[in-house]
Write a structure and sequence with these properties.
With 254 residues, this protein is an alpha+beta fold. The chain has nine helices and twelve strands. A hairpin with a 5-residue loop joins strand 2 and strand 3 (26-30). The longest helix has 24 residues, at 225-248.
Length: 254
């Protein structure tokens, strides 16, 4: 328990009572600078074990309030912590190829591309998630969040590793922006009956199952676009790490 006699901002001892805070503690206000504070408070530190647990829970279909209840942390602290986690997720998404001969030169490389509907704030503000997935390794090569236009597809294309843009064959549905961006020699538009986009469609289902922000009818939708993108990147980075382990060790069952 820490007892404050001075204002934490200016150090003045001239303060007055100013109501109560949400938990019933007496609130004080400094007469000099106007800063509000409580005289008696307990400074609780979140242990490394709890931080590691929260990092795992952020990859599951739980709301932020549910994580607060399960771990016993405040929503304000959790929001600051998840921003740190999202900012720490690498832009390259932890994409890694099998060690040894380059698979892009040994065998035929196939990439599936698809878009997934989501929203931020309200359903009137749709944010489409564009994904490119390597069929062989099942790793997500790149993603982009934006509208459903050719411009968004172009940005996804620019995020792909150069070697994929030069050598891979891309399987998509018949949505026009794909054919406008992907070179004709590398593009293969398919129909639903062909079932050639099973891998990326299955990953779309995984995203909706694991990220509550992407569930069609949810109270856990994103209110902020930056956090929306950060949550997706954070999950994909950890997902790619699990796929890399299986890619290096084919004997590991999925």
């Amino acid at each position: 328990m820490i007892i404050r006699e001075d204002c934490p901002r200016c150090g003045s001892r001239h303060h007055k009572k100013n109501g109560h805070i949400h938990n019933g503690k007496q609130n004080h206000q400094c007469k000099g600078c106007g800063r509000q504070f409580v005289r008696e408070f307990a400074q609780r530190r979140v242990s490394a074990q709890h931080r590691a647990l929260i990092e795992r829970l952020l990859q599951e279909r739980l709301s932020l309030r549910a994580i607060c209840r399960a771990v016993g942390v405040g929503i304000k602290w959790l929001m600051g912590f998840l921003v740190e986690c999202y900012e720490g997720a690498p832009a390259h998404l932890n994409v890694e190829h099998r060690q040894g001969p380059d698979p892009l030169l040994v065998g035929h490389v196939e990439v599936e591309v698809d878009e997934l509907w989501s929203f931020v704030g309200k359903k009137a503000n749709p944010q489409w998630l564009w994904l490119a997935l390597d069929v062989r390794s099942r790793q997500v090569l790149a993603f982009h969040v934006g509208d459903r236009s050719q411009k968004s597809m172009r940005r996804l294309w620019n995020k792909l590793p150069v070697i994929y843009r030069e050598h891979a064959t891309f399987y998509t549905d018949a949505y026009p922006p794909y054919g406008c961006v992907i070179p004709k020699a590398q593009h293969c538009a398919i129909t639903k009956e062909a079932r050639k986009a099973n891998s990326v469609e299955r990953f779309n289902g995984t995203l909706r199952q694991r990220l509550s922000r992407l569930v069609r009818s949810t109270l856990s939708f994103s209110k902020n676009l930056t956090n929306h993108i950060g949550a997706i990147r954070y999950f994909i980075c950890h997902y790619n790490l699990t796929r890399t382990t299986r890619y290096r060790n084919p004997s590991i069952s999925p």
